[in-house]
Design goal:
The protein is α+β, with helices and mostly antiparallel strands. It has 17 helices and 22 strands. The structure holds adenosine-5'-diphosphate (ADP) and magnesium ion.
């Protein structure tokens, strides 16, 4: 049979078929049904939300809330598609304060399950009970029920066997449901959530209104000792939440949650901005624990871009990303300053300042400029006494708290990075013109990176000019670059700037790459003066213990560790 003869005429779908198909977007899996029902309970102003789940929701999803309920006259309508009490005209979307607004969840879920609702509206004395099967209302009757609403969904996807098959493992889907509930508990600390899976209570949030209490319930009570409070306001964007100190981290991103006006959202680039602020504080491959709430005027968030409303668009996307990045970065820096202030009170200096060389060492690159502006920041690293160098790579030093082995390259990277960072901030990066412009062959993606980051590169001390489609002329490079080859420096920096997942990362990447190129290499012999100079500069940085890529700059062996190793304790 030819393809043509298989063609059937165009027809409008019957409404129930259309609904059953559309239901796939909202009621994709049990966890997404749970999400919609929680949205509804929160929108109804519930303070307590109880969820009972059997067989990962395939057998039963029951959600009981103490919100305002639905008036008897409207209960049936709630099951119709495009029926909602939350918006009545397009403009209402601009002032949206509810999680739902599409009026499709109950209709979609009803199309693929059996539902029973019992509800009593705020000022009604008798409640209403409605039963429906595959979208068809079977029965409505009065009933006695507390104020609020209880919805029970059974035989989910019973009439869509294919969808049921996609729920492969009940255990995994149960876990997914639990994580949805936890996200909402973090999103709404004032609401108490209780979750029971197959008769076992597996999660409960306190509903105290305190985010730290929910973090303890979600991530374990010990985590709260390691949390820092974020409280930030910028251009009408409020950012509040709790983030982990660098001492607490995870091997994946599952403990990072971002909320926009009380709605859990999936947004990779926001998570990226958050993690970027941790760079230098956490080892590569480690991720923070965080629950961060963004609060914006409702008109600046578009939640109408994703059927499950879990992705949103911000009118001022760049500002939101910038504000998040700065709020986290500042919180971490303040932590570092406070911690060092505490440390300083019980530390004593062991190095006499006059011992330090006043002449430039290391080809001048360590001395290119003193940090601009403020007085030297207090350091998290005590003053150290340098003994010598091991394997032309590690500096061995002693401090009041034991022995330190310092990676000379990583340490110098940190020093240069911090210095560049300060200079760039102050708009004072020193540049060094080349006697003769050098030409460098570059790839198409490097060219793109050059064009996209023109301003950043200029403020970082580069003077570069595209030359044809596959080369650039180098007229000047940052003075800090020292003896490194200008062509290699430019090429490395452009490579770092290729395919950036997020523009906010460009600055850090460029500076880290410059610092790496200019830093003294492993294998270089340093004399004691040079090592002392490097160590004293490292002491003055804000994050002496990691290089800009997040690798450690040093290993510290405390006196007690040494004593233990030698069997003295
Ligand atoms: P939406 O939430 O987008 O309005 P739904 O299909 O989820 O659409 O719900 C339809 C309507 O039913 C809601 O607008 C709301 O008025 C009502 N409703 C649903 N669940 C509840 C609940 N738990 N408590 C009170 N009213 C509810
Ligand atoms: Mg809804």
């Amino acid at each position: 049979m030819s393809q043509d003869s298989e063609r059937r005429p165009i027809q409008r779908m019957a409404p129930d078929l259309a609904l059953k198909i559309a239901a796939g977007e909202v009621a994709e899996r049990p966890a997404s049904v749970v999400k919609e029902l929680i949205d509804n309970a929160i929108d109804a102003g519930a303070q307590h939300i109880r969820l009972e789940i059997r067989e990962a929701g395939l057998k039963l999803i029951r959600v009981t809330d103490d919100g305002h309920g639905i008036p008897r006259a409207e209960v049936e309508l709630a099951f119709a598609s495009h029926a909602t009490s939350k918006i009545h005209q397009w403009d209402d979307l601009e002032q949206l304060t509810t999680l739902g607004f599409r009026g499709e969840a109950l209709a979609s879920i009803a199309a693929v399950s059996r539902i029973e609702v019992q509800t009593r509206f705020a000022d009604e004395t008798v409640g209403t009970r409605v039963r429906a099967e595959h979208g068809e209302i079977l029965e409505q009757s009065p009933c006695s029920t507390p104020r609020g609403l209880r919805i029970s969904i059974s035989d989910l996807f019973g009439n869509v066997p294919a969808r049921r098959k996609f729920v492969r493992s009940l255990r995994a889907e149960g876990g997914q449901i639990q994580s949805v509930v936890m996200q909402y508990a973090l999103a709404q600390p004032g609401v108490q959530f209780t979750l029971s899976l197959d008769g076992r209570d597996t999660f409960m949030s306190p509903g105290s209104g305190n985010l730290a209490d929910v973090m303890a319930a979600v991530h374990g009570p010990t985590t709260i000792e390691s949390l820092l409070r974020v409280d930030w306001q910028e251009h009408g964007i409020r950012i509040e939440g709790l983030i982990s100190r660098p001492s607490l981290s995870r091997s994946n991103r599952s403990a990072i949650s971002v909320f926009a006006n009380g709605r859990p959202i999936q947004n990779r680039s926001l998570i990226f901005a958050l993690e970027e602020a941790y760079s230098g504080f956490l080892m590569i491959g480690r991720h923070p624990v965080a629950a961060v709430h963004l609060v914006l005027p409702p008109g600046e968030i578009d939640a109408n871009i994703h059927p499950a409303k879990s992705e949103v668009r911000f009118a001022r996307d760049r500002e939101v990303h910038g504000a998040l990045h700065r709020s986290i970065g500042t919180t971490l820096l303040e932590m570092r300053l406070n911690r060092t202030a505490q440390l300083d009170t019980h530390l004593f200096a062991t190095v006499e300042a006059e011992e330090l060389p006043t002449q430039p060492a290391l080809g001048g690159s360590l001395h290119a400029a003193e940090p601009v502006g403020a007085a030297p920041a207090p350091s998290a690293l005590p003053a150290l006494r340098v003994f010598g160098q091991a394997n032309q790579t590690f500096i061995i030093a002693e401090g009041p708290q034991g022995l330190y082995m310092i990676d000379q390259h990583a340490a110098h990277e940190r020093v240069l990075f911090d210095r560049l960072d300060l200079q760039l901030e102050a708009g004072e990066v020193q540049t060094q013109p080349l006697l003769e412009p050098a030409s460098l062959a570059i790839s198409a993606t490097q060219m793109l990176a050059l064009e996209e980051n023109e301003e950043l590169l200029a403020s970082a001390g580069f003077d570069l000019e595209p030359f044809g489609s596959d080369a650039c002329l180098i007229r000047a490079v940052p003075a800090l670059a020292g003896p490194a080859s200008p062509a290699q420096l430019v090429s490395e920096v452009l490579t770092e700037l290729e395919n950036l997942p997020e523009p906010a990362a460009a600055r850090e990447r460029a500076l880290a790459s410059m610092a790496c190129q200019a830093a003294v290499k492993a294998g270089a012999t340093l004399d004691v003066q040079e090592m002392r100079e490097l160590v004293s500069q490292l002491e003055r940085t804000l994050r002496p213990d990691t290089c800009p890529h997040g690798r450690p700059t040093m290993i510290h062996l405390s006196h007690s560790q040494l004593e233990r190793e030698f069997g003295r304790r």
